[in-house]
Amino acid sequence: MGAKQRERIVRYRQLSFIRQGGRCYYCNRRMWERSAEHRLDAMRRLGLTRTELKFRLCTAEHLQRKADQGTNARKNIVAACFDCNQSRGETCPTVHKANRYLPEPVQDDPEIKQIFTRLKNMGPRTAPAIELYAKAKFLRTAQLARELGMEVAL
């Protein structure tokens, strides 16, 4: 890959980072853009350790993989955290996003909001994150069931 093409991809990644509000296309976690922010400042802003920050590094992700005749066109490049970019493999972008996306809570339930806030600042593959995600999913399911007038055993 030539220097001009690499510069173009970096620019598209930066534009995607801005368009996506600094959040990963797949998991919706806040990311770190190396060219715009010093590592120590990002660690403070995100409340992460140096090791955790590595997984939040903003990378250029090709929606249609280059191996599948994807191009370096602007519409084919989104900003994704290092962790999501590396874990996608051959998975379809829509499926990968559905498996990793952390939406905002449905309502202002303080317990669910607190869990999602903690999840967004945690590595997705850690045991505490998996437990928190399961708890949040259960609480949201219970919340929706109550709204529909269904009995929920907690």
UniProtKB/TrEMBL annotation:
Gene3D superfamilies: 1.10.30.50. InterPro entries: HNH (IPR002711). Transmembrane segments: none annotated. One of its GO terms (molecular function) is endonuclease activity. Residues 57-89 form the HNH domain. It holds the Pfam family HNH. This is HNH domain-containing protein. It comes from Maritalea myrionectae.
